[in-house]
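USER: Note each token:
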Amino acid sequence: MPKILIIEDEAAIRRVLVKILSEESKTYELAEAEDGLEGIEKIKDQDYDLVLCDIKMPKMDGVEVLEAIKKIKPEIPMVMISGHGDLDTAVETMKKGAFDYISKPPDLNRLLNTVRIALDRKELVVENQRLKKKVGKNYQMIGDSPEIEKIKEMIEKVAPTEARVLITGDNGTGKELVAHWLHQKSNRSKGNIIEVNCAAIPAELIESELFGHVKGAFTSANKDRAGKFEAANGGTIFLDEIGDMSLSAQAKVLRALQENKIQRVGSDKDIKVDVRVIAATNKDLKEEIKEKNFREDLYHRLAVILIEVPQLNDRRTDIPLLISYFAEKIAKEQGTAVKSFSKEALELLKEYDWTGNIRELRNVVERLIILSTTQTIDDKTVKLFAGK
């Protein structure tokens, strides 16, 4: 249930805001504060999903409240409430981190749209923070083969730039890992990296997922919703399996890259976005262009830098390092002692045909660890349980 705090010294305005929001959604949990100091204390004691804050108040004005809350809980979106003479100050608060501002008396549609969008953005920020923690723990580039060293060198050169990158390679080779490393080593690393699996989203929903939609744009659009491009503003958007994107969505992505603007589905209003695009595919996009399945102009916009991730069969010297890494990771996940692999077992695993690449190797290592009855996994155990 979204929790909204209203910081406003005028009781009449507070009542209006409470009435509007209560009628809009029975799920909103509303709290009130008569001045900035009380509002800050409430923020310290509880978690809120949104703050509506007046600009002119006794004891502490809205600008000071904004600065204080951003230090305490920077992830909370704040919408400033401005009187007629406060518009310049309201614009200034947005430079200091406010999400938006609304004027007094509050316009019904303007207020509700702003609240919906701000709450959507808060959900995306929280989810991205969760993903960042996951990324920090789980994403590592394992290997010292010439093929992997070449990719690491490329990432070091390309990451600090704004160049768009197209990552190619078979399924399971680690394209997602390369995208995350590019983001983490970029100047946008403090911003969001938003992932979109283009192959997993139905064609009729991909545009809404990428660009958002307005209420009523289609049957199930019961509220305004921000898309992935907006969520990635100031950061990176990773378009995985872009070869599966519909031609209609490709045209809109092309416009976003050309003009740094998007339009939500059902709206003709332009929204400026500052996003670095990293794309990945397991398809041959040049062949897809010949088959009229992919736009050539979009390809050239995306493929400023090309990074090809090799198959595991082409970097076999990395297999022992990968096995050691997976063995430690799996043991940690299962809360057990780390099992080792004999030299003969490692040599046998290096010889196998890894059609499923790193993903398949990880599954085999986990299977061997679970099914083996000894602390050291030997070649006999590999032959028995590897499924090769």
In short: The chain has three domains: 3-121, 139-310, 313-385.
